[in-house]
Design goal:
The chain is an alpha/beta fold and 286 residues long. It contains eleven helices and eight strands. The longest helix has 18 residues. It is globular, with a radius of gyration of 17 Å. The chain binds 6-hydroxymethylpterin-diphosphate (HH2). 6-hydroxymethylpterin-diphosphate binds next to β1 and β5.
């Protein structure tokens, strides 16, 4: 695919006609909670990206700033520096890779789209930067809108809701409407309840249990539970990279409840689990 064609956002093309999509996580950061520092070197990052594609990732989500609880923001310049080189390297070896940029800054999103990314994963749901909505509207770029209460630095300090599932649902509905008003095509919107973002263990479990309330909004739903702390609270597995089985359980349960995008570190395990879940739930597809 030519650079010009790639720079024209492939609106809607990443949304599969059927079946679940695996979004492989690529954190180009020194401080991410489970893989911080592993992929700061662009060569190592691109190698890992290719491995995730070979394991069955449909999309690669490249991020240059950790949003783990307690994390500190980095400058836009630093974020751009981290992600652009990596996006370019991935596309030089896999020109057809579908890349998402995990950012709430319009400057980083602009640079990433120019470098060949196809969609924007905004954990602030277009609240973090006043220019982000017009950017995704103007470029007709697919966007992931995530719910977060508070901000990463303090969000896990006593998150509080009156009616959590209803509040998350209403927030996502309002943000989707805002995005459409800014020019985003409804079919290019993915919503995400934001597992672990201003939520305690009970909140995370209630969201997974009542996912139909989010699915009912009519947009594809993404779940990002991979290796997160609440899995340790349940299983006792302290080492984040060993929380694969717990992650897979969330993937399968969320898929059964209607989620179709799964943002995960461990692509192979989640892909295989989804293949089995798909076969059980939709035998006619086989
Ligand atoms: N979680 C993280 C980052 N980005 N984006 C979406 N849409 N949904 C999520 O649940 C989500 C996200 C945090 O996980 P990770 O990238 O592994 O860690 P860190 O923020 O420390 O880099």
């Amino acid at each position: 695919m030519s650079r010009t064609a790639r720079n024209t956002p492939r609106a809607g093309t990443f949304l599969p006609g059927s079946g679940p999509s695996v979004v492989g996580i690529l954190n180009v950061t020194p401080d991410s909670f489970s893989d911080g520092g592993d992929f700061l070197d662009p060569e190592a990052a691109a190698e890992h990206a290719v491995a995730m594609l070979d394991e069955g990732a449909d999309i690669l989500d490249v991020g240059g700033e950790s949003t783990r609880p307690g994390s500190n923001p980095v400058s836009q310049e630093e974020e751009i520096r981290r992600v652009i080189l990596v996006i370019e390297r991935i596309l030089s070896v896999r020109p057809d890779a579908v890349i998402s940029v995990d950012t709430y800054r319009s400057g980083t999103a602009t640079a990433a789209l120019e470098a060949g990314a196809s969609l924007v994963n905004d954990v602030s749901a277009l609240r973090g930067d006043p220019r982000m909505a017009s950017l995704v509207g103007k470029t007709a770029c697919p966007v992931i809108l995530m719910h977060m209460q508070g901000e990463p630095k303090t969000m896990q300090k006593e998150p509080h809701y009156e009616d959590m599932v209803r509040e998350v649902r209403e927030f996502l509905a309002e943000r989707a409407e805002y995005a459409v008003d800014a020019g985003v095509r409804p079919e290019n919107i993915v919503v995400d309840p934001g597992i672990g973002f201003g939520k305690n263990l009970e909140h995370n479990l209630a969201l997974l249990r009542n996912l139909d309330a989010i699915v009912d909004l009519g947009f594809p739903v993404l779940i990002g539970a991979s290796r997160k702390r609440f899995i340790e609270r349940i299983t006792g597995v302290q080492e984040a990279r060993d929380r694969v089985s717990g992650t897979v359980a969330t993937t399968v349960l969320a898929y059964e409840r209607g989620a179709t995008f799964f943002r995960v570190h461990d692509v192979r395990a989640n892909r295989e689990a989804l293949a089995v879940a798909e076969a059980v739930l939709h035998t006619s597809r086989r």
